[in-house]
Amino acid sequence: LPLDEGWINYYKEVSHSDAMRLFRESQVFAMPTRRDSYGLVFHEALASGCVVCVPDREPQREFVDYGKAGIVLQHLSAVEMAAQLGPVIEDAELRTRLAIAGRKRYLDKFSQQVIRKQWSDIVAAAMED
Question: Of 18, 34, 69, 101, most Cβ neighbours within 10 A?
Fold first, then answer.
């Protein structure tokens, strides 16, 4: 959802640099996917301050704290996803609240600093044994 006019744009495939630009220009990110086992793109969208809409499966539900820091969508087709986005499109306060919660979730759980510390702790614990 680009900031201007609130239109929904569909992209089949974009380069990483284009994806990062689109995250910065957008308020909401939704991606129908049936193949991603983890989905780093959802983390990139959270880090960029987008409201992230994830498919209703793990680990994506956990990324958005089961709907507290993003939206869990029940269907994966682009058309069905777009139909479910009405509330977030129409309610600026909801968009803002979810974007802030999503960004905080990223910083608290998934940022490089957090992951680096977790790995450091694991390695330190392994060296003690």
Answer: 69
Place of tokens 């992951």: 115
The DSSP string of 16-54 is HHHHHHHHHHBSEEE---SS-SS-HHHHHHHHTTPEEEE
- Phi, psi (rounded to 5 degrees) for 54: -115, 155
pLDDT, position 1: 46
Structure-token pair, residue 79: 């058309």
CA distances from 18 to 32, 63, 78 (A): 18, 23, 20
Q: Is 2 helix (H, G, I), strand (E, B) or coil?
A: strand
Q: What pLDDT is stored for residue 76 in this prediction?
A: 67
Neighbours of 4 (CB within 10 A): 7
- The pLDDT score that the predictor gives to residue 7 is 63
Taking the alpha carbons at both ends of the chain, their separation in whole angstroms is 50
